[in-house]
Specification:
Elements lengths: L1 H22 L6 H12 L3 E2 H7 L7 H10 L3 E5 L7 E5 L1 H21 L5 H17 L14
GO molecular function: DNA-binding transcription factor activity
Protein name: MarR family transcriptional regulator
GO biological process, one term: response to stress
Length: 148
């Protein structure tokens, strides 16, 4: 069944990512990496916007930001337009870490789909993107790209 296979691939992907981070002596999850990457491209966004950019639950994104803040990788500040909202940005340490590990994360991507040729990987990714986009509105944490 597709759901089972998708769950298995997620388990495999997470395991490969965590093994690589452990080899680098880092305590970083795939979601934390996604958050750091989104913040690099969108500095100073609020937590709700960040959640939408990485298709993560708005309620639990605060915990992700808390852990990244404790690690010194992100900083929060009060939004001048809405004092209830918090803006999030990478710290210099977060930026340096992201520059260091992004090539590592890129290099492990093919191993997530071991057993497939390069052409099959490209096809798989295209089909997975198509399926995810078609059902995005059915997700409890839909992807919400930032409007230009």
């Amino acid at each position: 069944m597709p759901g089972y296979l998708i769950r298995r691939l997620n388990q495999i992907s997470t395991s490969i990512f965590q093994d690589r981070m452990a080899a680098l002596q880092l305590d970083l999850t795939p979601v934390q990496f996604a958050a750091l990457s989104a913040l690099q491209v969108n500095p100073g966004i609020d937590q709700a916007t960040l959640a939408g950019l990485i298709a993560y639950d708005r309620v639990t994104i605060g915990g992700v930001i808390d852990r990244l803040s404790t690690k010194g990788l992100v900083a929060r500040s009060i939004n001048a337009r809405d004092r209830r909202a918090r803006q999030v940005s990478l710290t210099p340490e977060g930026n340096a870490l992201l520059h260091r590990i992004t090539p590592e994360v890129a290099a492990l991507q093919p191993s997530i789909l071991d057993g497939l040729t390069e052409a099959e990987r490209a096809l798989f990714i295209a089909l997975a993107q198509k399926a995810a986009a078609a059902s995005n509105d059915r997700s409890r944490a839909p992807l919400r790209p930032r409007k230009p």
